[in-house]
Amino acid sequence: MSEHGGVPGAGLVKGLAVTLKTMTRRSTTQQYPDVAPELPPRSRGVIALLEENCTVCMLCARECPDWCIYIDSHKEEVAVPGAARPRQRNVLDKFDIDFSLCMYCGICVEVCPFDALYWSPEFEYAEYDIKDLLHDKDHLGEWMATVPPPPAHDPLGDPSKEETTAARKAAGPSARPAPARVRPDAATDPGGGAAS
Ligand code: SF4
Ligand code: SF4
């Protein structure tokens, strides 16, 4: 018995067993760049911009924790046939993302209400000069070609909001959801019936 009460040499045998097991296991090392890695399609490689969807709402720039989205725009008047006055719309002049600051949190992609930002799994855009990691709107637009198509809808999942709306419109006004029921005493009780 060893001084700790175990069988002498047990630790050595255990260690050798681990070594042997590791040596005979198939290596998971990937020989990048000779072999391209198989990344999940939704990997966060680079952010792509679909410029025509961007309304310059500035939500992404405001929510970015690293303040690495730079947007500039101007207003343009658009004549609308039949309208008394021309409408105004924002025109995007600049949309840059500095990938030397970006921490790939994905907040900008999530908060964009107009589906103008997407993740692409493309990650091979290292640069010798850090300044070149600032991608302008043309560069961000080029990444759109590498964005994978959206995953197929789960047949067991809930229908999308658009599908529900389209089905309700197709069914006509009789299929509209019933208005929220009002408690009988709420009409006479301005305080909503709360106990005083
Ligand atoms: S992924 Fe995060 S850090 Fe990068 S630009 Fe978007 S919000 Fe900013
Ligand atoms: S949140 Fe979307 S629509 Fe708004 S400025 Fe950013 S990319 Fe454009």
TrEMBL record:
NDH-1 is composed of 14 different subunits. Subunits NuoA, H, J, K, L, M, N constitute the membrane sector of the complex. Residues 155-166 have a biased composition (Basic and acidic residues). NDH-1 shuttles electrons from NADH, via FMN and iron-sulfur (Fe-S) centers, to quinones in the respiratory chain. The immediate electron acceptor for the enzyme in this species is believed to be ubiquinone. Couples the redox reaction to proton translocation (for every two electrons transferred, four hydrogen ions are translocated across the cytoplasmic membrane), and thus conserves the redox energy in a proton gradient. It is found in: Cell membrane. One of its GO terms (cellular component) is plasma membrane. It is a peripheral membrane protein. Belongs to the complex I 23 kDa subunit family. [4Fe-4S] cluster 1 binds at residues 54, 57, 60, 112. It comes from Micromonospora marina. Residues 45-74, 93-122 form the 4Fe-4S ferredoxin-type domain. It comes from the Bacteria. HAMAP family: NDH1_NuoI. It is an enzyme of class 7 (translocase). Residues 144-196 are annotated as: Disordered. GO terms for molecular function: 4 iron, 4 sulfur cluster binding; iron ion binding; NADH dehydrogenase (quinone) (non-electrogenic) activity; quinone binding. Keywords: 4Fe-4S, Cell membrane, Iron, Iron-sulfur, Membrane, Metal-binding, NAD, Quinone, Repeat, Translocase, Ubiquinone. This is NADH-quinone oxidoreductase subunit I. Its cofactor is [4Fe-4S] cluster. PROSITE patterns: 4FE4S_FER_1 (PS00198), 4FE4S_FER_2 (PS51379). Gene3D superfamilies: 3.30.70.3270. Its EC number is 7.1.1.-.
